[in-house]
Write a structure and sequence with these properties.
InterPro entries: Nucleotide-diphossugar_trans. This protein has about 375 residues and is an alpha/beta fold. It contains 14 helices and ten strands. β1, α2 and β2 form a beta-alpha-beta unit.
Length: about 375
Amino acid sequence: MPNVSAQGWMLAFLPVLIWGGLLLLPWRPWSTRERLEADAEAVQAADLSEITVLIPARNEAETIGATLAALQAQGNGLQVVVVDDQSTDATASIAAAYPHTRVVSGQPLPDGWAGKLWALEQGKSQVHTAMTLLLDADIQLQPGLLPALLAFKRREGRQFVSLMADLRRTSFWDRLLLPAFVYYFKLLYPFALSNSRTRHVAAAAGGCVLLDTEVLRRIGAFASLRGALIDDCTLARQVKDAGYRTWLGLSRGVVSLRPYGSLASIHDMVARSAFTQLGYSTWLLLAVTAIFIVAYAGPFISLNSSARPWALIAWAAMMLSYLPILRYYRMSPFWALLLPLSAAFYLGMTWSSAIRYWRGIRSRWKGRAYSS
């Protein structure tokens, strides 16, 4: 068996520290214990008259009907406001056909505003209930999800609760990259820390957020975060900073209808905000790159050496950290073998996001470009 230098042993041992340390963290960022599922039996008795759903919609004709139909099946008394954000398709006319649904015609996007936040700002004056549900136009709630979310919010005494959507997995690229998207989000924003009273971590999933309307007004949203590209986490941060309690969890009852399917579409989704997540810091990007190379490539490099046992331990710990996400989304554990490949693509997409920024484009989404 070939000998290895001290540097070679370090390259083999560092991944063990990284992956072993991750598994031993007391807040368990790899875990799926923070979850909430739909309660179909609660639909018949659900009184949702305290909630207004606020939906920003831009060219969502393919999904808005399914989103609104699912809301109709959640319970009684629910009010819905759809802000048509300058759509060029039939989004507005489809939405207007649903009962208890008001359609607000959005005005042109002012300078300094992100499109989604501008749409929400225009719709908030139509909300006259105690609670507001912020819902993306491509999110379908399974029967009983909203009553379960409302009951959880009351039981836990939270002013802000959100659920991460179950992303559609219809292709190889979806299965390779979308569960890993949730995995990396949880590593970056550990749910247990975000859900605690600490001010150091605040996170949310913007596709489905139920919060007190008064809290929204007191923090000055949405004008106070009008230029934010990661609006959900920014909103959670403001809610926490104001002294309120937040909660974020996974759910299979919040279903994304947006089809990805291709590497290009997933790239666009990730690259629009990946460098923003790093605070546009080149040094942090380089640090993340170094960590990824050591954590994922280190075990491979060390396999054909006397440090092979350490490499195998690191490999096993890496896979073990990914298995809870795969199990939660009912995927084969064999996908864990491809986590290093997923990591390589995510690192590449993060660099792509940085290159966009250096070229003067902070983000690009829904036909709009936001300059850096």
